């Protein structure tokens, strides 16, 4: 039954065990279908869960096959140093989060806005691609925050899940500390 859940994309929206079958490289996308990943590296778009994918800025252009399969409806650019991202035709919502990748950068003012935007897009049937320069630190931190807030995961489980989907993630130490505080905030609620 577990493979059926993976292939059909059935799961609780707050499930701590998001479906992801690395043996077959199948990852569910919003709407219950799946796509097959050929790789998960620095230059690919990495689906995280239905409705959410993570990448570096250039991957939107170098991994056109995955972008076409995901049919993103929202794009979030977390790299303040980069210009606005040219949007794929399917994108109707664009949001820029001008943050730097430094341990002293405060993601706090943006955490709820970004996670709420991802979730709103998901519940309306859309898919968000979130990126920073490399898809390693800033955008990965926001993905972890999303899994904490809307999928009920611990910070450690969210980190591990995303690292399975995109092994190159490495949020800086300041972001990790902020994610621990973010997790505490949602555990108390």
Automatic annotation (TrEMBL):
GO terms for molecular function: phosphoprotein phosphatase activity. Residues 112-167 form the Tyrosine specific protein phosphatases domain. The keyword Ion transport does not apply. Transmembrane segments: none annotated. Residues 44-188 form the Tyrosine-protein phosphatase domain. InterPro entries: Dual-sp_phosphatase_cat-dom, Dual_spec_Phospatases, Prot-tyrosine_phosphatase-like, Tyr_Pase_AS, Tyr_Pase_dom, TYR_PHOSPHATASE_DUAL_dom. It comes from the Eukaryota. Belongs to the protein-tyrosine phosphatase family. Non-receptor class dual specificity subfamily. This is Protein-tyrosine-phosphatase.
């Amino acid at each position: 039954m577990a493979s059926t859940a993976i292939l059909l994309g059935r799961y609780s929206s707050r499930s701590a065990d998001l479906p992801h079958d690395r043996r077959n490289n199948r990852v569910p996308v919003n709407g219950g279908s799946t796509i097959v990943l050929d790789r998960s590296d620095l230059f690919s778009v990495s689906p995280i869960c239905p409705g959410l994918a993570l990448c570096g800025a250039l991957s939107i252009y170098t991994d056109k096959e995955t972008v076409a399969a995901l049919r993103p409806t929202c794009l979030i650019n977390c790299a303040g140093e980069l210009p606005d991202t040219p949007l794929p035709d399917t994108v109707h919502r664009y949001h820029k989060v001008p943050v730097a990748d430094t341990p002293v950068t405060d993601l706090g003012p943006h955490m709820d806005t970004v996670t709420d935007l991802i979730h709103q897009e998901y519940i309306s049937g859309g898919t968000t691609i979130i990126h920073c320069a490399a898809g390693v630190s800033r955008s990965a931190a926001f993905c972890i925050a999303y899994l904490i807030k809307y999928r009920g995961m611990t910070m450690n489980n969210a980190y591990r899940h995303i690292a399975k989907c995109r092994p190159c993630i490495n949020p800086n130490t300041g972001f990790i500390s902020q994610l621990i505080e973010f997790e505490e905030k949602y555990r108390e609620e």
